[in-house]
Amino acid sequence: MDKFVITGGNKIKGSIDISGSKNSVLPILAATLLISDTCIINNVPRLRDVYTMVELLKYYGAEVEFDESIKINCSNIENKPPSEKVKDIRASFLLVGALLGRFKRVSMFMPGGCNIGQRPVDLHLKGFSVLGANQILECGIIDIFTKYLNGGEVYLDFPSVGATENVILAAVMAKGRTVISNCAIEPEIVDLADFLTKAGAKISGAGSDTIIVDGVDSLKGVEHSVIPDRIEAGTFMLAVAGTGGQCRINNVITEHIKPVILKLREMEVDITEEDDAVVVYSNGNIVNTDIKTMPYPGFPTDMQAQFTALMSKGAGTGIVNETVFENRFMHIGELIKMGANIAVEGRTAVVRGVETLAGAEVKATDLRAGAALIISALSAEGTTEIGNIHYIDRGYEMIEKKLSAVGCEIKRIEG
Ligand code: UD1
């Protein structure tokens, strides 16, 4: 298995370009299953999860060309039993809404828990059932079927990103109106709605807590550019804050990373916002603050591990409260190996900043936990080896190349 070897202490200087959003492109790719025509998707990040999703679309019969962009035609897809490959990524459950919309019947493996929590799909299933779909669960495979999908009123007990996306996908070609209340308002939901609207769907309210979908008979091919990845942007901002230095982070929508910008400013990091960039300046001296993760526009859970890593070397004590996932502190054991002083009690971590972190042998336990270890390694004394970096490859495009280009000492060792 590949690992990263990082020698800390170099200040970051230069500029980094942010790639397209992983969490946008995955539902958009799933949505192409609804369209019997050619779609072109631009600004696609080259990530393991994206390649897996493309393989899954091909499994159902999609014709795909993946060069600069993804050109995809789902005219001749057929419904099939689920491929074992769906188990590789949780986002494959988004295929359910799209296949249900297209065929009115779908079989899929039920996703299991993962490193960051149980992650049930009860809200997705509730949405499909409101639209009239029956469900039978047998031997880990859920069969969802109906003669007609009819619009209905879906209340999400929690504003789940995936459930909001899945219900939208099932509703766009249902008969009549679907209203999704207490839905997620993440930018990735808006991007999916924009893609589908260009394709002829009738969706209003995306980005607010109530989305209305009026079913249409068919959708047409479109060209769409995926929004920039706000979590990748935030991760690099924290890397600069931790090492000290100055870096322009290009291709960002600053509105999408407001909590990251404002929290970093509380920590005395200097940030200038431009039209589609942020310039981060830091002398490496961070003052700790408290964070509490929440659905958008609150502080993103996908940035919690990275902030915890940054705070490990900050001045004073910071409290981290993880409210979205029940088990998202796996990185803390690894940070402690590097000398961090962090105590966990349930969903709260108390981070007492230390003067220095020391390089160590650590392992990524999930995607963002891996990103957190990179942030700590870059500002630690000595050399850190990070194992299990296949997790990091799921969500960061060419991270070692991007960091090397701004002065970091990071090497991928193939294993
Ligand atoms: C998406 C993101 C992930 C991010 C998360 C929260 C993608 C591919 N992934 O994941 O990076 O961390 O949003 O911003 O976009 N829940 C239920 N029942 C459900 C669905 C969710 O209880 O049916 C719970 C989950 O267990 C979790 C919380 O709701 O505790 C949030 O999950 P959700 O918003 O659905 O996250 P994902 O869509 O899985």
Can you describe this structure?
It is a single chain. With 415 residues, this protein is α+β, with helices and mostly antiparallel strands. Helices cover 30% and strands 25% of the residues. It contains 13 helices and 23 strands. The chain has helices at residues 22-31, 48-59, 94-103, 122-130, 161-171, 187-198, 230-243, 258-266, 304-311, 330-337, 367-379, 390-393, 399-404, and strands at 3-7, 12-17, 38-42, 63-66, 70-73, 105-109, 134-138, 141-145, 153-155, 177-181, 202-204, 210-214, 223-225, 245-250, 270-273, 277-282, 291-292, 317-321, 341-345, 348-352, 361-363, 383-387, 409-413. The strands form six sheets. The chain has a four-stranded mixed beta sheet. Strands 2-14-16-15 form a four-stranded mixed beta sheet, covered by helices on one side. A four-stranded mixed beta sheet has the order 4-5-3-13, covered by helices on one side. Helix 7 (230-243) runs parallel beside helix 11 and helix 9 (304-311) runs parallel beside helix 11. It is elongated, with a radius of gyration of 21 Å. The structure holds uridine-diphosphate-N-acetylglucosamine. Residues 23, 26, 90-91, 117-124, 158, 160-163, 184, 188, 301-302, 324-325 line the site of uridine-diphosphate-N-acetylglucosamine (UD1).
